[in-house]
Amino acid sequence: MLKKPIDVSVPLHALLEQRWSGRAYDKARTVAHEDLLALLEAARWSPSCYGEQPWRLLIWDRVKDPQAWQLAFDCLAEGNKMWAQDAPMLMLACASLLFSHNQQPNRWAEYDTGAASMSMSMQATALGLMVHQMGGFDALAIQDRFAIPAEYRCLAMLTVGYQLDADRIPDALRERELTPRSRKPLETLFFSGQWGQGVDLL
Ligand SMILES: Cc1cc2nc3c(=O)[nH]c(=O)nc-3n(C[C@H](O)[C@H](O)[C@H](O)COP(=O)(O)O)c2cc1C
Q1: Å from CA of 122 to ligand 1 middle
Q2: Which of 52, 104, 136, 186 is the most buried (most CB within 10 A)?
Q3: Atom 11, ligand 1: which residue's CA is nearest?
Q4: Virtual CA dihedral for 64, 77, 53, 56, nearest 10 degrees?
C-alpha cells in the first residue's frame, strides 16, 4: 500500500500507521480465497459483549458472482460508486440487535460490529490488502434486496482489494489519494481524570 506518513507523538505499530482508507483499487487483482478467510477469521476473533459475536457479514465477489456484486454496488451512494467500482469485493457489515440468550436489545451490537470491521481492516493491512468502510449506502434498499431479517441492522458497506500503484492512480482520485491523513489533537479527544481535561502529553 502507498505509505502515508502520519503525525504521532510516539511510534505506533506499523499496521496502525500503514492502514488507511484508499479509494484507488486495482481492478485486475482479485482477493485470494485464503486471504478472504484470514479477514473473516480476524473479524470472528474480535471481542464482543457477552461473547455474543453480533456481527454478520455479507460478501460479494465480482468475479464469482457479478450479478449479486452489481446488486450490492447499486445500493452505494453516488459519491462512493465513483471509486468503489474497481473494488473486486464488497461486503456489508450487519449487527444482530438482540442478545441470543434472552432476546433483549444488545446495545453494544454496533460497537462490537465496528470493532470486528477494524480487526478485519488490520488483517487486510497485514496482507497488503485495503479495506474501505462506507456509511454512504442505502441501508433499507440493501436490507430488502438481500432479504436481511429485520433483527439485523445494516451498518456499513466495505470495499476490499489491492491498491493501485501510485503511478497508476487516475487523475480523478489522485489528489484525494495523496492528501496526508490528519486527526484532531490527542488532548481534545482523550481526557484524564475529568471530562474536558486533556491527557498530559509530556
Ligand atoms: C463508519 C464509517 C463510514 C464511512 N463512510 C465513508 C463513505 O461513505 N465514503 C468514503 O469515501 N469514506 C467513508 N469512510 C472512510 C472515512 O472517511 C475514513 O476512515 C476517514 O476519513 C479517516 O481516514 P483513514 O481511514 O484513511 O485514516 C467511512 C469510515 C467509517 C469508519
Answers
A1: 15
A2: 52
A3: 80
A4: -30
CB under 8 Å, gap of 24 or more: what pairs does 121-125 form?
Answer: 121/19, 122/15, 122/16, 122/19, 122/42, 123/38, 123/39, 123/41, 123/42, 124/19, 124/39, 124/160, 125/1, 125/15, 125/18, 125/19
Supply the pTM of this predicted model. 0.97
Contact 88, 61 (CB under 8 A): yes
The alpha carbon of 120 and the centre of ligand 1 are apart by a number of angstroms equal to 15
pLDDT at 1: 81
User: Distances in Å between the alpha carbon of 165 and those of 2, 20, 28, 113, 179?
Assistant: 7, 15, 12, 31, 16
Tens-place pLDDT, residues 128-151: 999 999 999 999 999 999 999 999
pLDDT in tens, 93-133: 999 999 999 999 999 999 999 999 999 999 999 999 999 99
